[in-house]
Structures are given as structure tokens and as C-alpha cells.
């Protein structure tokens, strides 16, 4: 009898535990506690959170936050380290508030946050990707932060141009976060190019074609590129090259739906150039079969004389090459000007692709909203900006003075490339809709394989744009 | 006597309830929910608008979906021939008296099926790699370096190349199933047939296949079901590329739902995959039955 009773109880417990596992819980499933930064340097250099503010927050309870600054990512990425450090300091300064962190790597974060948005189950505070702003604002998922931004203690220091991806119908839905990093940079070995007869990286694409013959004779790839993930050609090439052909007004017209089309001649010209550039033999033959992480290894191991990628690649290259001869000869350049492109020159696409955003459900909870707002201010404001400026020579939403003299030549050069010597243009996939970019990115692969024409790519992108945006 | 040890009905029901609840929650509820959402124009979030069968009409005209369906069928055919066909031949070889260390062959043959599909994808990506891959290295070694190519970027070959890891992974799995089926055949039948002068091929065709027909049917069903939901290793190897040349239905559904955030149409694709898979499995069983009845 007892055995029977026991087995019934155990079976019931098992069933209940299975059901409980499926139920909704207050805290996210993966909610590791915030870790204080591990490095001693980070501890000492980190600015202290404003203790006086801690007293101002009346809220006592939980706040859920979801972000993609993982501890692994923060090892080589200044923005990520700054985010984690600032967050840890804020948590320390507010002992009455329990912060439930859900940290995922960037590529897992994007589908996960989209799924939570679809289920109307977003965390209290999270990182909003620019291209989701319009759709999520329309759905009422994210809070209109226009007034919050105006009232920020750091408002006068904000770089207003950074807000553009997070504006919908004149309202701003987030505080741009992390560091402004370029998405398109040519990283090149100045020594190898000098040997090829170029004192600095060519400013015209025709000259790159000339250099190709030299590097081929040396059994080297002229430029390494990886596009197996499909997004790289858009983010790290076309977005900059497109602007050279179309100018920024065209893209703003696309974003604001003011009449520009993907089938416009200037954009098709940019696609034609992209097709020809990748067919010219300048790039490694396997560019569509490897990703950017593998392509940058071609540069690091010397089998390519240059590499095109984003700031995340530069962080990795810097960490890997430090102490090696190639570190000292590595320089940065913009993508050389294509023949026939007259709309802009010396440009690179840069911006803040994500913003701290607040769940609209907090609208009726004044104390909790105040706490969430304060957290967003800190993560994007002075404490963050000073930390990344001082430690990494990086800039974000809030302007802070950066003393370059404390950094080595590599860091100085990259700082100047990103913020001083070049003109910024928009990152295509920070805007519009992933439904458009997913179609375009897939077709770019087919186009560079010679399967479809630039005109067909443009027509399909336009169709996706009209039906999804 | 039997009723004395037979548990009471409610005990049986109680135990059965656990897997049933789990099955209903993990399979039935999502399927029904997907079917429900497939009638909406839903780009995520709380707002969705009912649009009737519009998603299904789009699906019928969606060339990428049908291209993906074709790729799934390719995988099914390649796997039935490659996995079950080769497994059957390997079993016959292992069973022959000439082969030593049968246990080792069985164990190592089964081993790849215990590896995660993602790892398999990475392993084979390295084999196919253009600059550092084993395949191109081997071609250079035998003096045929000009045949080296960017394998996974070859639109004509990519489906074959992503099928090979699948075949490699699952041969051992089907070997174990077929081995156990063959071992249940009475040994006397083989002895008698040998006395009558039957060779190995005749034994395979006229004794083994008819006697393990039902097991083979189960293998085919498992193979079809497994390949209609192929996803992981293709995601790792090509992400469906180049372009959509190795896109499969599950990956396309995932892209639409999560990369493009089109949940309504993504749900319609899921239902489409379910129906297409059911039809293919039913069709395969029908064909197998038809062939075996004729025989």
C-alpha cells in the first residue's frame, strides 16, 4: 500500500515538475547574477556609480534586463566590457533592486529577443536593434522615450545623430548603447602594399585591381572577405559602397518611405560594382564559403594583404597580433572609390546599432520605470563613455574627451579612422526590416556567384520592401 | 493468474499520462498553435490581423519553399540509398564469415550517429574547406590540384555535399537495426540455402530482404521523417546557401519566423512542412507496400 502511495506521489511530482517547467516564471530561465568585472584594472578604473542617485530611487524589487555583452565578448570588446562594468556598478549602487540578467551572445540574442517581442513578453530593459524600432513601436511593445531622453542628466552631451535609427513617427524609442563602431574598414598590411608599389592603400578601386596581379604572383589574396553568414556583404561592403553611388538622401528616403526604390539606377550601379568587384579575383576565392572570422585569419596568417570587416574584427585582430611585426605595419583605410561613384567619397558606415529600450508595460509603474530609466541613463551616459574612452579610446552616445596619448599607434590609427578622418554614413541593416535584408543578403550570394543579375536582386529587394515595410 | 499481476487500469493510465502530457505539450499544442497563427498576418507582437488563407496562397506560390521542398526530397532519396542501402550492404559484409572483429565494426560504425549534427557539420565543413580542407589537400597530393574548388559554394554540387555527412552519420544507426533484424532469421534457412547452392547475392535478395521487409519499412519511415526535418548541419555548413541552393524547409521556416520576424507566414510554412512530410511518408509507405505486394 505504502509503495503504491509512494509511486503515485512520485509520478504526480514528476508530472507537476514537468508542467512547472513549462510555466511562465518571473525570472528568465537563464538569469545569471551580475558578475563584477574580473580584471583588477577594470575594478580600479571603473567610475563609481553616483551614490547620491541610489537614494533617489524609490523602487525596491526586480528588474529584468536582457543584453548580449557576454563575459567572453567583453574580453576583447571595449563596448561590451564597458557595458558589463557600468551595469555591475549600478547593481552595486542599488542593493534594493534585484537585477535579473539574461545574457546571450549577439547572434542568439537577436532571434531570442524577436521571439519574446512576438510573444509580447519582452524584459523590462533590453537592447533594441534599430531595424526593429518602427515595427515594435507600432505594436506598442516599446516605450516612447522622447521625454526621458530630454530629461537625461547627460542630455547635453548626447551625439544627436546617433538617435536616427531609433526614431519612428517623430518619437525616439531608445538610448543608443555600446560604442560607435565602424562596420566597414579595410585593414591592410602597409609593408606588403609598399612592396607592391603603394605608399598607402589605394584610393581608387582601379588601383586595387592593379595590385591584384602583384599579390597573385606572391600567391597572396589581395583582400580577404568572408560572407558565408550572408549578412557580411551587406553590412561590411554594400552599405558603404551603396552610399558612394546613391548618397545618403536616397537611403533616408528608403527609411522614411519617401519614394526611393531599390530598383533606382544608382543602387543598381552599386550592385553591379559589387558583382564585378567580387568577380575580379581581388578577394579570396572562397569568400562565399567562409565567414568573417575565418577571413580575418587569412590576414593574420599573412595569406592576404588586406581584409575588409567591421570593428569587431579589428578588436580580434588587435588582440591576436599584439607583439607581432604585422601589428606595427597594420593600417586602416576606407573602401577605395569605385569608378563612376560620385555621390560621396571617403565614407564608412558607422553608428550605434542598438539602443537601451524600455518595455511599454512599465508605463503604469512609476517607481520601476524611474529605476529602469536610471539604469538606461548610466549604461549609455557619462560613466560608460568615460570608461570606454579612457580604457579603449572608443566613443558612444555620450561625448567624452579621449586622451589618445595614452594609447599605441594601432589604437590611435583606428580611433582616427572611425571618428576623425572619415565621413560617417548609415549602416543599412540598422534600419528598415530584417525581412528586406534577409532577401537581399541571400540574393547577394547568388549574384556574386553569377546566378542572378543585379537588376533581379534589386527587383526582389524592392518587392520584399513593399510587402514588409 | 494474469489478472493478479496485472496493474489496475488507473495505474496504467497514471503512468501513461506522463508521456502523453509531455507529447501533447511538446508536439500537439505547438502544432495547433501554429495552425491557428497561420491564418494571421502577424509580424510579432500583440497585434495580428486575420487574413484567412492568404498565407497558404503565398506558400503555394513561394518558389523558395518549393525549392526547399525539392532539396528535402533530394535528401530523402540520397539517404534511403546512402544510409539504408549502404547499411544493408555493410551488414551483409560484416555478417560474412570472412570478416574479423565484427563487434569493433559494429561499434565504430554506430559511433557517428552519437555525435551532434552541429559537430558533424563543422567536421565536414573542415573537410570541404578550400584552403585547409582534407579534400583539396588530397586532390593536390594525388597530383590533381586543378580539380580543387570551393566545394560548398558550388551550386550544382552543394546538395550532394551536404548529403554526404548525413549518410556518413546515420549508416551505423541503420546497420544496428538491420543487424538485429537479420540475426532474428533462423540460421537453418541460410544453411539449407547454402546446401542448395545459393550465393550471397541470392541469399540477400530471396531470403534476407523478404524476411526483414517490415524492418526495412520502419527504416525507410525513420529515414524519411528524419530528413524532412533536416536543419542543424545545413545551418552550420551553408546556412542554406549559396543563395538558396541548399535551403531546406525547416531552415526556411526558421528564417521567415525568426530572421524575418514574419510569425504568421512562418506558422503557415510549419503547417506546410507538416503536411508535406505526412504526404511524403504516406507516399513512401504506399510505394513500398505496392512493390512488396507485387513481389
Structural features, described:
The complex is a heterodimer of chains A (469) and B (295). Chain A folds into two domains: 31-180 and 352-401, Periplasmic binding protein-like II (D-Maltodextrin-Binding Protein, domain 2, 3-Layer(aba) Sandwich); 183-350 and 427-468, Periplasmic binding protein-like II (D-Maltodextrin-Binding Protein, domain 2, 3-Layer(aba) Sandwich), CATH 3.40.190.10. Chain A has 21 helices and 13 strands. Chain A has helices at 2-22, 40-45, 51-56, 71-76, 78-93, 106-118, 133-138, 146-150, 190-195, 205-217, 232-246, 248-255, 265-279, 292-300, 311-321, 325-329, 366-380, 382-392, 409-420, 434-448, 454-468; strands at 61-67, 97-103, 125-129, 167-168, 171-172, 175-176, 181-182, 185-189, 306-309, 330-333, 347-351, 354-358, 423-425. In chain A, a hairpin with a 2-residue loop joins strand 4 and strand 5 (171-172). In chain A, helix 13 (265-279) packs across helix 21. Chain B has 295 residues and is mainly alpha-helical. Chain B has a single domain (62-294), classed as Orthogonal Bundle (MetI-like fold). Chain B is built from 14 helices and two strands, in the order ααββαααααααααααα. A two-stranded antiparallel sheet of chain B has the order 1-2. The interface between A and B is large, with 44 and 38 residues.
